[in-house]
Amino acid sequence: MPKTSKVVQREQSHEHVTESVADLLAHEEPLDYKSSSLNVEAAAGKKIPQIEVPENDGRPAWNSKLQYILAQVGFSVGLGNVWRFPYLCQKNGGGAYLVPYFILLLIIGIPLFFLELAVGQKIRRGSIGVWNYVCPRLGGIGMSSLMVCGFVGLYYNVIIGWSIFYFFQSFQYPLPWSDCPIRKNGTIAIVEPECDKSSATTYFWYRQTLNTTSTIAESGGLNIKMTLSLLVAWIIVCLAVIKGIASSGKVMYFSSLFPYVVLFCFLVRGLMLKGSVDGIAHMFTPKLEKMLEPQIWREAATQVFFALGLGFGGVIAFSSYNKMDNNCHFDAVLVSFINFFTSILATLVVFAVLGFKANIMNEKCVAENGEKILGYLNSNVLSHDLIPPHVNFSHLTPSDYADVYSIIKTVKEDGFAKLGLEPCVLEDELNKAVQGTGLAFIAFTEAMTHFPASPFWSVMFFFMLINLGLGSMIGTMTGITTPVLDAYKVQKELLTVGCCIVAFLCGLLFVQRSGNYFVTMFDDYSAGLPLTVVVILENVSVAWIYGTKRFMQDLEDMLGFRPSIIYFYLWKYVSPLCLIVLISATVIEMAISPPGYNAWVQDLAQERFQSYPPWALAMCFALIIVAMLPLPIVFVARHFNLMSDGSNKLSVSYRKTMMKDISNLEEQDEARFILGAKPGDTPLAGVARKPYVTPAGNKSVDPNSLSPNVCYGTSYQNTAINSPPKSKNNKTLEFRQRM
Fold it and tell me: Which stretches are transmembrane (predicted)?
């Protein structure tokens, strides 16, 4: 045994040892048991097992590293990268927004993503089992995470259902949202008034797709088309995850890679369109003064937070199927940067297409207002002398119209407003910020109607949205099923089918005619604040309760190298502080902003903001409370020993390893060597204290055997081995290990 060994040092120093054998084995230098003096049975030719975590403990594993990376990318890269990130860029100063986003990605995103990957891979359990291990009294973290996954999955799959509906509607020419429908009244044919007041794509979305009501209080009954679309969406998700990672891993090969093919195709096609460069230039033109506003930093932090899927449990669940020595640090950095560059790519595509759309709309505006001016000239309301000689109304350009508009506004200063002329400025069209469903189902679809071969591009676009949503839904469902399968002996297929059926029935709330308003409600309240609280508790439980130094040592043992010291300070100080500021800003924002939704008013053919009625407001706060309720309940229940600490549901690989190793040790000699100062000596008995009740409830554990990093004095008893009575100094030796 090496002279620097902790066991040798304690033997020579005559110090009394209070650590358990499990702790000594966990921290001891690697030994060659075949040549060690501890190998009592080697002379007899008996084989002694090595101390290592078995790779195959019955837990499923990824077929390849590529499959795992694609699963993490598919989960983190979702619909938000396509319709949320471009909107935030446009709203918060274009290229200036990328600076705070990238900074916060480095100091919050990557460290916390690395933390979740590491704990999942080390403990090899889902979110509930992981946080039961790290700190049993904070085991509610995993349950809250599961609750949020359930809420998000309910409405997220509705969006996939909308995409499925548009996907099938795209197989026709012209596209059904290209023109307003014609209403026939006897021999007179008129354009549908609601469509005429808005636009063809807006009308198709609100009236023919959602058939939405004017308020959230009006249910309107089920929308049959959306109900069938939701059913198809849940069938697809169920088939993708029914076999766990065995089925979802194969799906990820397509669902994770196909969106990149579509995005690159759209980028190439978009750059060939007139006005695309204007859109991209508008996006990347930095408004540096925006960087000084706190709002931009808060929104950047929120986007980083949700873009990586932190707190949902999917990241932990996926990493729990990895090998113990997988380089999760490399995975964290790789997936984070893939996510970031995907957001940039999607933003380029969106602004290239929106730049083309803005030019189309600006030319339409110029043509309509040019006709108004001609009418005023023919009726002598305006003098022909006001028109510059180079202006040709048969081919009126935006720059010529701008000159005419400026002259008329100057001359007709008093009566200009009565003329009803619009400025028709391209910048104004580009500044019309749209996000979410408004971007995907209205603005982008309208732009695609002007594409050559528009049905093909529409099919590609909505098939891409389906795959983006499917990748995120697979991660969300894995975050739900993995903790349950870890904790209970349930058949995987039955659990998956049962979850999908229950989710579909609950999802009927979102496919009634007022369902769009409930999607907005769940999106605003079910995940934001609860997930932020979950992640900060994850950070605190690892960095401050389990111990950052101990966690760094675990990482070194697991990865084979010690991560940069910068992670120590980020986990311990920077990330918790940033998350506290984010929570405070979120609460302030919720308190300042009146809770409400944008309702489609049919008579006006436009959206109007409306406040939630009292019952809906109560529902909003109920979503927040229900999602966070497991946190205090589990804490109180375990504080008063009202529920098990979950040790009997932790990774069997840990139990198998220690049981196998301990059972092959010579109890008497090992006990004397490790626990005694000299062979034959017996350690002094510890001071008697009140025992802790183990999860089984029938054995007591001496507090002296607890590791100092165990949360709130909770330990996991592994096994007890009684030594044969060979001498008067022999006593029962109980081996304990904190799982």
Answer: 68-86, 98-119, 146-168, 228-246, 253-272, 300-321, 333-354, 456-482, 494-513, 525-546, 567-592, 612-637
Residues 659/183, Cβ–Cβ less than 8 Å = no
| Number of other CB atoms surrounding residue 614 within 10 Å | 8
Q: Is 339 annotated as a binding residue?
A: yes
Q: Is 431 annotated as a binding residue?
A: no
The answer to the question of whether 81 is labelled as a binding residue is yes
Cβ pair 119, 555 in contact under 8 A: no
Q: Where are the domains of the chain?
A: 65-360+434-642, 366-431
Assign domain 65-360+434-642 one CATH number from 1.10.3720.10, 1.20.1740.10, 3.40.50.1010, 3.40.50.720.
Answer: 1.20.1740.10
**What is the mean pLDDT of the segment spanning 407-421?**
79
Q: Which residues make Cβ contacts (< 8 Å) with residue 439, sequence separation at least 6?
A: 82, 83, 86, 87, 350
Average confidence score pLDDT of the chain:
78
The answer to the question of whether 74 is labelled as a binding residue is yes
Could you write out the three-class secondary structure of 252-292? HHHHCCHHHHHHHHHHHHHHCCCCHHHHHHHHHCCCHHHHH
pLDDT tens digits, one per residue of 57-109? 567 888 888 989 999 998 888 888 888 888 888 777 777 888 889 999 999 99
Looking at residue 445, its pLDDT comes to 87
Backbone angles phi, psi at 274, to 5 degrees: -65, 130
Q: Residue 658 has what pLDDT?
A: 39
For strand 188-191 and strand 182-185, is the pairing parallel, antiparallel, or unpaired? antiparallel
On whether 77 is known to bind a ligand per the annotation, the reply is yes
130 annotated ligand binder? no
CB 552 within 8 A of CB 567: yes
Q: How many residues does this entry show for the chain?
A: 739
